[in-house]
Amino acid sequence: MNALLAIPFVVPLLGAALALLLRRHRRVQAGVAVATLAVVVADTALLLAATADGTVLTSQAGDWEAPLGITIVADPLAALLLAVSSVVLLVVQLYAIGQDIGGLSRAMPQVFHPIYLVLTAGVCLSFLAGDLFNLFVGFEIMLTASYALITQAPTRARVRASMIYTVVSLTSSILFLTGIALVYGLTGTVNLADIAVKLGSAPAELRMVLALLFLVVFGIKSAIVPMHFWLPDSYPVAITRISAIFAALLTKVAVYAIIRSQTLLFGRDDISTVLLCVAIATMLVGIFGALVQDDINRLMSFALVSHIGFMIFGLGVNSVAALAGVVIYLVHHIVVQANLFLVNGLIRQYVGHSSLRSMRGLTTVSPVLALYFFLPAMSLAGIPPLSGFVAKVALFQAGVGTGGWLVYTALAAGVVTSLLTLMAIFRVWARGFWGTPMPDMVEARERLKRGSHLGGLKFMAVMTGVMVVFGVAIAVCAGPLSEVAFTAAHGLMNGSAYIEAVLGSDTR
Amino acid sequence: MRAATLEGTPSRPADLLRPARRTGTAPPPGGRCASVLPMMIDVPMLLPAILALHAVVAVPLPPLVRRLGPRAFLLAGVPPAVSAVWALAQAPAIVAGRAATAEVAWAPALGIGLNFRVDALSLAMIVLVSGIGAVIFCYCAAYFHHGERGLGRLAAVLVLFSGAMLGVVTTDNLFALYVFWELTSVTSFLLVGHDDRKEQARRAATQALVTTAGTGLLMLIGFVMLGHAAGDYSISGLVADPPDGGPWLTVALVLVLAGAFGKSAQVPLHFWLPGAMVAPTPVSAYLHAAAMVKGGVYLVARLAPGFADADLWRWLVLGFGLATMLVGGWRALRQDDLKLLLAYGTVSQLGFLVLLGGAGTQVAGVAMIAMLLAHGFFKSALFLTVGIIDHQTGTRSISRLTGLGRRMPVLAVAATLAAASMAGLPPLVGFVGKEAALEAFVPGAAPAPGPEGSAVMLTGLVLGSILTFAYSARFVWGAFADKSTVSERGFRRPSAAFVAAPVALTAVSLGLGLAPALADPLAQGYAHDLPAGHHAYHLSLWHGITLPLLLTGLVIAAGALMFVRRRAVSRLQNRMPRWPDAEYGYHLFVHGVYSVALSVTRRTQSGSLPVYLGIILATMLLLPGARLAAGLITGEIAVPGVQGAFRLWDSPLELLVAAVVVVTTIATVREHRRFPALILLSVLGFGIAGLFVLHGAPDLALTLVLVETLTTIILVFVLRRLPTTFSVRPNGWAKRLTVLLCAAAGTFIALALWLMTAARTDAPISQGYTERADEAGGDNLVNIILADFRALDTLGEIVVLATAAVAVASLVLLNRRNRVVDEPAAEVAVEAEEEARLSAAAEEHADSVAAHAAAEPALGQGQAPARGAGAEAGEAEMTVRGTAAGPEGAGGESRAEAVGGGPGGGEPAEGGPAGGPRPRPADAPGDAADPGPAPPDPGDTPADSADPPPDPRETPADPDDHEGSDDGRP
Hints:
heterodimer; A: globular; B: disordered N terminus; ND/Mrp_TM (chain A); NADH_UbQ_OxRdtase (chain A)
């Protein structure tokens, strides 16, 4: 078994167990958690380096050859997303530790750290799973951890939100399981590569039914319209670090699952029309929601929904360029969403709430905070030269390159969404950041400066800054990133490398 | 530009940056390069380094300004100065046709690269952007006061803007152009909104941004389409070898022009420019006279050699340009605020420039360059003049200024000369340019746009020029004349350094006018690529007695008459019906967007969990379900044969079990009390376990029985804390729809399972397990699958269970220590109070927005957008309404508990302690958390679309939510 492939989910699980045992020794526990994630970051970086040229690494759990055993697969897409996600996970964790040091959170670190590591394992396993049922298990680990995390520092609102979140997630899990049963019924296997091969000889219409069913299953978790409503009702209510990691990763894992299933398994079938219609609806409904929000976190949650639409759009265009665009967009969006939620967390610390109505003059209260908000927000809106621009250009190019009236309609929706995103963001800026600061905001800031929390707060700000820099770095490295994205997209469009790596070269 | 720094630095760090910094004092290295390498066509360029220099200087500016005060602006002026000096040093080579290029790789796979190419047009623009920019930075040092608020930020952003603008005019890559273009939009947003405590500044900034960035996005799509058609994103390549026509090319050109028109404030997108005059005057002089607004003109002129032949292009450019010129001139005539007069004058001149730039003939090209330079110099000089007047007297209203000509003679002379250039009087460069412009449209002199078109254009130009003369005269009179009706104001004499800037700029106007030969090579260098007219045209003060000269005479006479009879003109203007106001359109757009957003969000975000689940099921039925049905109907999905493969049961006992399952299911759904429902649910589970037994999987059945038993026991404990009956149940249509939806979903799954299993082609892998069971060392297949073949999955599921246990433990333990959820009465009261305060604040805000908007005339020049104000206030109000509905939203969520507590399996363990039925004191109205005697709520069902007012569900600020706001841990 290739250790590189196992480390991303095995080490966090070990770390989680250790962290749980060490719950009475806060510092040691935090150290273990950081060390664990650092290992994951290093490992995924190596994985990315190993797969960037298009190599597909595989490993058979328990040495049972595919399709009997469970295959762990890292292709460029999985490795890239793993690498980015693990960095984001690490930074958010450090932010959380800063918050705990400052005593600025009611979350219980002794519970938070182990479960956060379990979440990490779930995310990594989902990216690496080469087996449909194992993907389900990865999802379950991730989701169960998220059920636990969303009620951290419980309040009435949070428990309420967690009800919606949990019930909707469970529904999607049940449908996922049903889908697996159907796939097994049709093909007699659950190994992704094996399914891909065997679906080739299955009746086309049944394949299509499965493709649509899996779109619904993963669509719930990636919050595409019309199955998005749970997200703005639950994410923003959780504590900041949790919202940040949920917004950054959970929906993206589901988008990854959509990409993987729709390209590898159902690549022959054309559900572009459905995808494009869904993309249009998602972009517009999401951003309309964002425009009328008062709470910044809620606003960002709607924007998150909206921008999932861009990725679905790329998938619907269905060309190498489009998939490359989706990959770039995924990477961009993971970082930028985490970043925005972390900034919102800082705003809450400074101001005491995140309601735009009673917020004025944040630029005066904290210029650094303003900068931290401004850069990722502009990136989200696709303002150059930040990463959102690169991602959007890639998608627009793919759209124009493919043509067709539906694609152009979706492009137009994308342009409208970009403009409305800009309006939503600058509404936040003009209302919350400009103007004369409210007296209580200045007071809160002064209190914060004098209080004992300052060290922790500074650490949180530094970590947010690190995330901002990471976001900018993605834009700067757009060259290598787009190379890897194109390699990944080639791999997705032409699944043979993946299938050969898993099943051996003689299968087809 | 930031990217240029970061990208450029690793490739050739030292040699690029060092010489650039040195240039501040030393002779320009660019010139040395040009002279050392005269034979090379592409001179190695320092441009990326100069761009980087802008960014590098911007970073330390805020602290420097804090320490040194406005003097730091002199440092800020260094990068533009370096750029201007470098450009002038390159000039000989460039006008000789040797464009300078440079390249910094960025994302070649996407066609995004920071490629630069400086030719004659770019050079002319650099003169404006960097040359005038440097002068304005010096002026800033005198204009601003020490310790002014946000000055450091202003300086930094202004330098960044300068760099971005330099990028716009020098880049050769469509995407890089867009990058710099949007950077100018964003920096301009920050600059216009500099005085962010004024509502007006915030709104003007947003308006300018939405207009320019919105049209910019259209332009981006246009660029992508152009580049896709041409197969290349290089601008020079595109212009040299334009792609063949086709409908999409036309669309692309229209989109690109939309971007250019938005940026260059063409009618009907011009409204943002006068609004943007809330910016500090030096900023206006730079952005809104010299640099940014020229972006669109530049783009039109840049693409004209390739695309001016397209009919659509020509008529769009000429039509919108002329309309803008006339509308701007007409409206400039009636302004009382000198700055607004200049702003509308700028709109007018931009129209003029766009039509010259887009006309696509050599003479028009020559005229465009001349007017570009002329406008940059005279308009910025005039803006700076207004800045001085405003600074020294505290007003810039014509009706309050008098006698300044006597008191500031030097400034008056300079401004008069600049205005004369604007009016097109000899011997100033404005005259030279206008002569060329008129010549370009003398019918028959140029191939395009045809004799009739030329006649129309010429008439329009003459009319526009008359208006220009009239408002130029009005400016000079308004600013400097003695007016008997106005009493003199207090006045401080401006320092010489302060006046130096407009004087210097005017001197250039005069110099270029007296020696047009200086600008001529540049103009020829640009016009070279355009289709030639019948004879070559050179910029000159004297062409003989020609039609343009005669027309100029006419313009002067008519313009002078208009100025003398200004009262009559203004009466006429007042009598004219008011045109539909473009700004009104903008407000209508914003208002429309917000009301659509609000209604969409209200409709989609109901906040009710049953509705959400219903939608999920409906989506499943709509996508895969409908597909399956369609396949069955069309026969594309084969129904497995009844004979052979189809059998109703393996053992008749199954029938019994099935009956139990079906009956208990129906009974569960119909049961109103929680406890019996729970019992029925567990009976159902045992029934399914029975099915497992009948199919020979006793171990599975055993597991299921254990799970069911445990679940039931746990739920019984939970039920103790819940009311005995379900509080909310669907009724009527809602009920029927729910039943229908669930039944359909179940049918779909069953049908799909049957069809899929029947269609299986390959042997399932489970046979492989049987064969390899020995190897795995066991003979119970289920065991070895769980413990060996798929041990990883088992591990994962164990992790899931452990995590759930930790999660439940943490919640339950927390609850026991009373650290959760149920806020003490006092805190709830505070919450309610807070809520009241918030909505009051929101209403207040809406009022203040309306008030501000109503008070708009200050800059709204008399015809304030009263309707716009309404729209804006409406927006605020809408948000208020949306949020006021917030607390009610809780109802939907709490209803979730009713469902979650039922058939939700183990989950209520999480919901239980939280959603407890304890009555809360002082509850928010509409919060249905008490599941007591709540009336049946139709909104709870997936069916009913006539919900009680759904709301966009904005969470109210929750005091418990601010981590740390109340000093951290409780």
